[in-house]
């Protein structure tokens, strides 16, 4: 069932576990994500980025998620979220399409500009009963429109985070504490080291759910420490893409005579489901629906 993100994140934040926010761009990935949530009776956030909307179209991708949530997840809560909205137009488009949560990402701008543009999006969202996520600090790596290549990540300052939340009134905050976006860390087997002390300091000051982007590849121990110190939403995108495409590539290479899309794509759905189930267990949200 499709629910407001507040219904699931507030409970996770209060009870000390995290909700997985998994990126989709098509029917098959959406099925894999939601089937995993159903199998483990876990709340879940399905999120789309601006590039996914450009690829699939706002109405098709929205209706795909809404239809699966309604018919396949009758007793499991599913929330729909915009990931890394870079423009006010994207924010407004997703709000009017029925998203219960949006992210406005102006983290590449100076603090005052980030505050002003984030507050504009927050005000617009709140007037329509929608949650708003902001971001402060920048992650290394690249994902869609997000690209930071400097080896010194612009980590989130705890004092700035407090001021940012007070001025913007965001409902959740994405932070940079050593997490890294994108495929490079996976291919080069880079193991990010999260700054848990920084996370704890931020959490103690802002008192709202914190969001961990770039969480693909993080191990159980780091995830557990993050959740224990205020992280209530954990984003997974790169690992989903890898699970889907590597399985698809393997199927086609093993049997080049396959022509039925259902036989070709079915295993990729199962691969996404298996990955998401693993993450749900890691985040502690299994049997929390």
Account of the 3D structure:
The structure is a single chain. This protein is α/β, with parallel strands linked by helices and 289 residues long. It has a single domain, classed as Aldolase class I (TIM Barrel, Alpha-Beta Barrel), CATH 3.20.20.70. The protein is 51% helix and 18% strand. It is built from 12 helices and 11 strands. The protein has helices at residues 5-15, 27-39, 50-56, 58-72, 88-97, 111-126, 158-168, 184-187, 196-206, 220-228, 238-254, 261-283; strands spanning 19-23, 44-49, 78-85, 101-104, 131-136, 140-143, 146-148, 172-175, 180-181, 210-212, 231-236. It has an 8-stranded parallel barrel, surrounded by 10 helices. A 3-stranded mixed sheet has the order 7-6-9, with no helix packed on it. α2 (27-39) packs across α12, α6 (111-126) packs parallel to α7 (158-168) and α11 (238-254) runs antiparallel to α12. The longest helix is centred in the last third of the chain and has 23 residues, at 261-283. The chain starts with a helix and ends in a 6-residue tail after the last helix. Residues 141-152 have low confidence and may be disordered.
